[in-house]
Write a structure and sequence with these properties.
Distance between the termini: 82 Å
CATH topology: Jelly Rolls
Order of helices and strands: EHHEHEEHHHEEEEHEEEEEHE
Structural class: alpha+beta
CATH architecture: Sandwich
Number of domains: 1
CATH superfamily: q2cbj1_9rhob like domain
Radius of gyration: 20 Å
Strand order of the largest sheet: 2-10-6-12-5-4-3
Strand content: 15-25%
Number of strands: 14
């Protein structure tokens, strides 16, 4: 037997977090007028039905490869990067601050329109990651294990951009089809689920390896079970962006909801007015002048 979204037990935090979500989305609907772009309904429908969607040849490859180049340069200099999850990944720290290109991708009008259709509301960007994973002999852990995202208790939408072509050999995004609509009664037994448990609950046929090429767009409702498949060979560089309707929280606890990532103040100010609400959950940071003020002691 599965729980469906009609059951309060489907959601971590129960009525408390559901009520918080409803309060926040009502405020945004009242504050920001919006229209649904029918052109993207097909993608929203696929995400609602299956939990994920792949759109081929969606994005400018040159812009994505420029982002990859910026990551490569940062890593070669060992600047603004760090290893995470037991050295299974290397990620750029604060991509909107340390990459001139990242925010240009994240604020693309089409992403905003897709997310608006998904939430039936103008959403905002929460967190985002620019990360490289490489094949290694380390144990499987962290995001390489099946899990649900609890940054938002009801709905969260994540966009994925591969910055190099990804097959089943080099770690595709992996989703349990339909798990955004069906949860086992014991879904809260673990945060990170081993493969055999997921297979016992859903069956192998519902585990989908979402391979794609540079320029393709992947979309996931990450309240369903998902992971990044551990790499067998090669590497994978990926940019992910979370869209939601309130600041991200920890463990579906509303009291922890707060902005976490930054954007340069001038990059924010240069956004068209219709995009500025999408930055509501980002911290605006002033650039420090490169000029040096000399102090003369008399």
């Amino acid at each position: 037997m599965f729980l469906t979204p009609n059951y309060v037990e489907f959601y971590k935090g129960g009525y408390r977090t559901i009520n918080y979500y409803n309060e926040q989305i009502t405020k945004r609907r009242e504050k920001y007028p919006f229209e649904i772009n029918d052109e993207y309904n097909q993608y929203v429908k696929q995400v609602n039905d299956k939990g994920y969607c792949r759109v081929e040849n969606f994005f400018d490859k040159d812009l994505l490869l420029q982002l990859k180049k910026e990551f490569d340069e940062a890593r070669s200099k060992n600047q603004n990067v760090r290893s995470v999850q037991e050295n299974n990944h290397v990620q750029m720290i604060e991509p909107f601050l340390n990459s001139p290109t990242a925010h240009k991708i994240a604020f693309d009008d089409r992403l905003i329109q897709i997310a608006t259709g998904f939430f039936d509301c103008v959403p905002g960007i929460g967190t985002f990651n620019l990360r490289r994973s490489e094949a290694n002999g380390n144990r499987v852990c962290g995001t390489n294990m099946f899990h649900r995202d609890f940054n938002s208790p009801v709905k969260i939408l994540k966009f994925f951009f591969y910055l190099n072509d990804v097959t089943e050999e080099n770690g595709p995004f992996t989703y349990v089809e339909g798990s955004n609509r069906e949860m086992p009664l014991h879904w809260d037994s673990y945060h990170r689920w081993p493969d055999h448990e997921i297979e016992n609950v859903y069956g192998k046929n519902r585990i989908k390896f979402v391979t794609a090429n540079v320029g393709d767009l992947l979309i996931g409702a990450t309240n369903g079970f998902h992971k990044g498949l551990k790499l067998k060979n090669g590497d994978r560089t990926m940019f992910t962006i979370n869209y939601l309707i309130h600041p991200e929280m920890e463990g579906s606890r509303p009291e922890t909801a707060r902005p976490r990532f930054h954007i340069w103040q001038d990059d924010f100010e240069n956004l068209p007015d219709h995009k500025k609400p999408v930055a509501d959950f980002l911290i605006k940071k002033q650039r420090v002048s490169a000029s040096v003020t000399q102090c003369i002691v008399l």
